[in-house]
Structure formats: C-alpha cells, structure tokens
Q: What sequence folds into this?
C-alpha cells in the first residue's frame, strides 16, 4: 500500500530542512513519482480501426471528385476515413491504386444503369437521349459534387502524375468506344445510314458529355444542360425514332 500524498509531502518538507538526508530525499521523490503514476488512469491501447472496403472507396471517390487527384492528400484521405496511413496502404496499396479502385467503384455504381439504357432495345435515338439526360442529372445532383468524376479528371497534371492522367484518359476513351459500338449496331439495324462515321459521332457526343461536366462544375443548372443536349441531338444523322413510334 502506497503512502498518501499528504504523508509524502510532509516527509519531503521535513527532509528538505535537513541537508544531510540527500539519499532519503531521493527515495521520497521516487515514491512521489510512483504514487502520481498510480493515480493516473490506465490508457488502454485500442486496435486499429477496421475499415469497410466499400465505405472507404465511397469516401475516397467523393474526396477525389471534390478536390481532384492532386488536390487530395493522403492525410485528407486518412482523416476522412478515420484510419491511419499504414491501414490505408495495407488496404489499398497506394494513393494511386486507391484512386484507380475508387474510379472503378464509382463507375460500376453509375454505369450499370446507364449501360442498361444504352444497350436496351430502345431505338438508338431515344436510348442516346435518355443516356445523355441521365448524365446531366448525375452532373447536377444536389447532394454530390458537381460534374463527373471521370469526364474532366486530371486533364492538367504534374509530370509525376502522368500515369494517373493516362488511366483517366483511357476511361474516357472506353466510354466513347461504348457509344461507337451502339452506333455500329444502329447501322446494322437500319437506324443509321451505312456511311455514318460512328467514331466521329461517338466523339462528338463524348465532347458534349465532357462539356456538360465542365459547365456543371462552373454552376450550370440541370435545365441548361438538358437544353444543350436537345441542341446536340439535332445533329443526329439517322432516324429520330422513339419507343412510341414517333419520329422527328
């Protein structure tokens, strides 16, 4: 049983008045230190937080969307996820790898619905219209960052982030190839003239998609983006048929 602090203080006062009791004073000082440590609450060492992978990817995607790749630091990511850097690296590998996984996660979530629209049996003109309108809705969601995570991502970048820029450029190219494939199918099904340059047509609507993302980031509203789509659709070179059988 340790002595009380009052008893120790009293002993110290007595010893301090006696210059010949140096060794005893040292012993009392040690005892004071031990008593103070015993009075402090014991801090338990907790386990590192276990992060749900999908939750982490969702958080990362939103941060990258809001701030861009270069504007998002590792410290930003770990703080938002509530984890430490070693946990981030052991779970995702690196910031670049986390970015790639976050893009894949976001694309899978958004593109499943859009892919169904584009690849449906709707007339190609109507499918394209719905596809573009859905993108405009995504660019202007009130509870999410403006624009698209991929469409305008890493267009300008530092040299050390060139691989990240190539990755996002490849994703944009892939989306245009999806459009081209749908337009090629429309030629086969007689909805587009056989001589249609489907690659250029896909890049035209790809440019509309990227432009909508940029304008949404600058504050363009949903209605304005849809008016842009309506004008872009006037360039459609084939039949403007809808599922109701109407055509423009």
A:
């Amino acid at each position: 049983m340790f002595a009380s602090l009052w008893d120790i203080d009293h002993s110290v006062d007595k010893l301090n008045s006696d210059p010949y009791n140096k060794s005893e004073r040292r012993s009392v000082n040690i005892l004071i230190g031990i008593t103070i440590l015993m009075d402090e609450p014991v801090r338990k060492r907790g386990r590192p937080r276990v992060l749900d992978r999908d939750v982490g990817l969702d958080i990362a995607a939103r941060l990258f969307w809001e701030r861009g790749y270069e504007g998002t630091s590792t410290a930003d990511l770990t703080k938002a996820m509530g984890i430490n850097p070693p946990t981030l690296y052991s779970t995702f590998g690196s910031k670049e790898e986390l970015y790639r996984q976050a893009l894949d996660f976001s694309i899978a979530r958004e593109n499943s619905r859009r892919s169904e629209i584009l690849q449906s049996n709707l007339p190609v003109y109507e499918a394209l219209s719905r596809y573009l309108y859905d993108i405009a809705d995504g660019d202007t969601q009130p509870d999410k960052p403006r624009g698209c995570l991929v469409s305008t991502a890493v267009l300008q970048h530092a040299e050390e982030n060139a691989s990240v820029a190539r990755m996002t450029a490849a994703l944009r190219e892939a989306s245009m190839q999806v459009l081209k494939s749908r337009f090629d199918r429309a030629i086969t099904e007689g909805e587009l003239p056989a001589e249609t340059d489907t690659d250029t047509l896909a890049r035209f609507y790809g440019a509309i998609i990227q432009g909508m993302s940029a304008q949404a980031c600058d504050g363009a509203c949903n209605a304005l983006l849809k008016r842009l789509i309506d004008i872009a659709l006037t360039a459609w070179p084939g039949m403007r048929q809808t599922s109701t059988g109407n055509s423009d």
